[in-house]
Amino acid sequence: MLGPVTSTPLAPDHSRTSPPRTGLALAGVLLTVILWGTNVVLLKVILRFLNAETINLGRFLIAGVVLVALAVRSHGWPRWDARTWGQVALVGLLGNTVFQAFFLNGIHANPAGVAGLVSGIVPVLVIPLGLLLGQRVGWRQGAGATLAFVGLLALLAVTLRPGAAVTPGRLAWVLGAATAWALYTLGNRPLTERLGALPFVAFSLALGCLPYVLWALPHVPAPVDVPPLAWAGVALSALGANVVAYVAWANGARVLGAARTSVWNTLAPAVSLVLSAAVLHERLPAAVWLGALVILAGAALANWPGRAGARRA
């Protein structure tokens, strides 16, 4: 699962932030980027032994229990009204059931290096969707989204070549996952600011995954001849990418500021690209690497904090 949006209800007090605390927060953000980038490659390997439904059920169960326990311990049981619970469930549906269904199928159908581009494509979609909702967009965000869109078009052009490792149909799973996460992002921001990051993410996961769980249960085969390392990989994915990484990322956003933290997220697809080549021995054409680099450059530019953004962070 991708990390939550870098909105946070607590703005960092830079006057009270000591260098060791800042360094620890930055180390957590870097750890998060590595965990998210590695997670794509890990899931690609696990898919050799378990289907997507089994993997997601295990990840939902482990991450949901741990996150809800952490949220209740830190903030108590939420006293939200029925409308708020409904909003949390609806946004969680996008970020968990819909996103995870597309994401795992995208990883299964594509090279891990291509599937890992989801977080790089999201800014291409979030910014125009935000404009439709009346949100203001600065020149830097617009330029970054445009650059990332050019990279996406280049990647699409590569998929049209005969014999390409990636086809338009397979890439559609990645684009579907990015669209779901972009919509989740837009719904996440106001709820996170109002309810708190940890309570929102914990209960949006717990409620949002229920439709997927009900759909997936009949598709879970008997676990026959599944190596223990595959189950360990499921637990590692849930605890690493969905729990440890989230807590570290949220702390980074609180201490460093959302604007500074969000830039680092563009490194996660780069980690996936490098690991897919080194570990899985994926050999992607140079044109795919070029399109991916353009997408990541656009995503970094779109998330790069300007002077005004840095002051508000």
Task: Tell me about this structure.
With 313 residues, the chain is mainly alpha-helical. The chain has one domain (19-220, 227-304). The protein is 76% helix and 0% strand. It has 14 helices and no strands. The protein has helices at 19-46, 52-75, 82-109, 112-115, 118-132, 139-159, 168-195, 197-208, 210-216, 228-256, 258-264, 267-278, 286-303, 307-312. Helix 2 runs antiparallel to helix 8 (197-208) and helix 3 packs across helix 9. The longest helix is centred in the C-terminal third of the chain and has 29 residues, at 228-256. It is globular, with a radius of gyration of 19 Å.
Our count of helices gives 14
Major β-sheet annotation: none
**CA-based gyration radius:** 19 Å
Kindly state the number of beta strands: 0
Which SSEs are present, and which pair or pack?
Elements: H1 19-46, H2 52-75, H3 82-109, H4 112-115, H5 118-132, H6 139-159, H7 168-195, H8 197-208, H9 210-216, H10 228-256, H11 258-264, H12 267-278, H13 286-303, H14 307-312
